[in-house]
Amino acid sequence: MNNSIAKKRKSGFMRELNAIVTILARGVLLTLKSPASLIMSLAMPVVMMGMIGGNLSQNMAGGLGFDYGQFMMIGMLVNMLFMMTSQGLTSLVEDQEINFTQEMMIAPISRYAIVIGTILGSAFMAIVSCIGTLIVGLFMGIHLGAGQLFAILGLAPLMCLAAGAFSMLLIGAIKNKKAANMAVTLVTMPQMFLSGAIIPINNSSGILLVLNRLMPMTYCLDLVRAVVYAGTPEYANVVLFNPAVTLAAIVGLTAVFLVVGTWLFARSETHK
Amino acid sequence: MSAVIEVSGLVKQYDRTKVPAVNDISFSVGEGEFFAFLGPNGAGKTTTISILTTTLSKTGGEVKIAGLDVGKQAKEVREKVGIIFQKPSLDPQLSAEENIRFHACLYGVFGYRPTFRMMPKAYRDRVVELAEIVGMQDWLFKPIKKLSGGMQRKLEIVRSLIHTPKILFLDEPTQGLDAVSRRSLWEYINHSRHENGTTVFLTTHYIDEAENVDKVCIINDGEIAACCSPEELKRTLAFDPTPRVCLPTLEDAYIEYLKKTGGEVA
Predict the structure, then answer these.
(1) Rounded distance, CA B101 to CA B119, Å?
(2) pTM of the model
(3) CB A29 to CB B198 under 8 A?
(4) ipTM given for this complex
């Protein structure tokens, strides 16, 4: 064995960063090696944006006081980031089934590096879906400006982290891939309809309002719309909260969810 | 010789079980020692290794690796150890080299690069060197799915050695390997032990592999039945009041010991 190689090891923050990049790269590699995943990532927007969004656009877009197509497009992009990142995170459960989690758990890295790397790796598939959404949008005659696109892209890592952290609360303790997939569906589907991704929620009340306020995607959507619609006449109609408060809420909730979810994940691995 | 593994009163009881898998075991392994942990199936070997390598929590007792507490300083402990798991832990979607690269980068030995060619020369040379030792140089860039069980085992061996651990845990490392590969693997492990002073902790069902170890512990039903040098173990049995045969090998001694202590001989 070569001692000089062992001595060259990275330490501290750089090691954690390298581990995150390594796990992220594995996520990208696995997506690229799976044509079915890529096709699904591109096909999902056709169903979500083209069919659900298109239908809503044709039947309920009148009298809103803003361009529904653009409203829905932004909602769909955030929804894709949430949905695909959460689904990608189930790879942690798959890794448990093939014993690959052991390989990561035995490495001298923080458990947060494992979870964050996996979330960001899953985000790649989400970005592919976002590209698909933009392409479907083009066919539907919905356009976003370059500035708006860059704003969404800039916020995408935070959205993916928020989605992943929230999903970790559920996935962290689940050992079965089927159960994990069901849990993710259970979390992502209601969010799409209740958080304002495709249906305006300005007039929600009662239990639906409570559920809306409990969903992390509500705040993510609101922040993205606040940035995209900043300085436009539609701002007051589409943005619910103060963006600074929303940003603080997202960062705070993401941090809490990440800590609890990672703790659950690490505990489920070592406490048997 | 200072102890690099210190286990004292270790207990592990799995959730929803009535009997501990490991029950109050104590032993130590000296630095640079070649240590064999033998026992029949279900005796508690893998449970003990999992606790020692921080992948499983303990119920009670104290475990120190290189002076570090496995519970409180788990990350530092993981820095010191390498392991070949009993169950394969490879990513079947990646190629053999990608699995090795993933491991080396997680351990911080090298910075991650997207392709083998982009990795530092030191990494490439080391991978090729190790692959040649276990005879899998032609399979490095093949997907895991196309590798036989034996070839996958060789890959796990290469992967566990890439970060030059201070203590190497081998949980039945040669299971599924052919005789030639087994021999070349042991030659390499012995070579690296002498070169780097690596401590080797071995569990195996091939008792002949433990013939040349410094110390052997026999675990049965979660308890230590014997812990001494192979010679001592053989000598003890040879002086048994009712010896039936002269016991020339460790395997003979091991089987006799299990029979005497009421263990099941697999």
Answers:
(1) 9
(2) 0.83
(3) no
(4) 0.81
